[in-house]
């Protein structure tokens, strides 16, 4: 072998011969309505070339060309999710000084000094959780800690009543701000 640069190796044993489309000898053209006018020059029809093996002396058709490679499906562009800023949580003291509230929670005074009620709407129900002075102090101490686990304050609150509220991260954040405003004695704003 000489690396495909010539020679009489097996890769050179076949020659490609084109075939020509010629009508058979007994073919007669049909009469047309225009008379004996010439129809024009007949164009040859293209055919697949055939291969004549040198040793066999016959012809055999070439395999059909493979289909063109399929284009890969377009890859959608990656767009990172847009983080919508949440509105700030604002805890305000009522004008009469007996309650504090955020958008969803209300902390109001009870009938006994130091006792409070936390009111909120959740899952279509109105909840009112009684907080005695000791529970309120514990929750307020958790609310002012600089480092906190999300949901921890709400879980501690959920352990108090018999009819436990559902977990809520939003209410946890609001409760933290509400209790911080309560311990500070005024209005508090938190940009979460």
Protein described:
The chain is an alpha+beta fold. Helix content is 18%, strand content 21%. It has helices at residues 133-143, 152-158, 169-184; strands spanning 14-17, 50-53, 60-61, 89-93, 99-101, 105-109, 116-122, 125-131, 188-190. The strands form two sheets. Strands 8-7-6-5-4-9 form a six-stranded antiparallel sheet. Strands 1-2-3 form a three-stranded antiparallel sheet, with no helix packed on it. The radius of gyration is 45 Å and the shape is rod-shaped. The two termini are 78 Å apart. 14% of the residues are buried. The mean pLDDT is 74.
Secondary-structure element series: EEEEEEEEHHHE
Radius of gyration: 45 Å
Q: Taking all residues together, what is the mean pLDDT?
A: 74
What fraction strand? Answer: 15-25%
Number of strands: 9
Q: What's the tally of helices?
A: 3
Question: What is the terminal separation in angstroms?
Answer: 78 Å
Low-confidence stretches are: none
Describe the main β-sheet briefly: 6 strands, antiparallel
Outline, from the CA principal axes?
Answer: rod-shaped
Helix/strand-derived category reads: alpha+beta
| Helix proportion range | 10-25%
Largest beta sheet: strand ordering: 8-7-6-5-4-9
């Amino acid at each position: 072998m000489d690396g495909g640069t010539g020679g009489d190796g097996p890769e050179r044993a076949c020659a490609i011969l084109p075939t020509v489309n010629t009508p058979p000898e007994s073919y007669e053209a049909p009469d047309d309505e225009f008379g004996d006018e010439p129809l024009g020059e007949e164009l040859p029809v293209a055919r697949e070339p055939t291969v004549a093996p040198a040793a066999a002396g016959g012809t055999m058709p070439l395999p059909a060309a493979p289909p063109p490679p399929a284009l890969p499906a377009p890859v959608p562009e990656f767009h990172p999710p847009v983080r919508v800023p949440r509105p700030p949580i604002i805890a305000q003291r009522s004008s009469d000084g007996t309650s504090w509230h955020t958008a969803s929670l209300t902390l109001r005074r009870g009938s006994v000094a130091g006792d409070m009620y936390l009111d909120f709407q959740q899952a279509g129900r109105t909840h009112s959780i009684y907080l005695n002075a000791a529970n309120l102090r514990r929750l307020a101490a958790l609310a002012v800690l600089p480092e906190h686990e999300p949901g921890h304050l709400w879980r501690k609150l959920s352990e108090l009543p018999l009819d436990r509220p559902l977990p809520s991260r939003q209410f946890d954040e609001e409760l933290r701000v509400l209790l911080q405003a309560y311990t500070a004695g005024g209005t508090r704003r938190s940009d979460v």
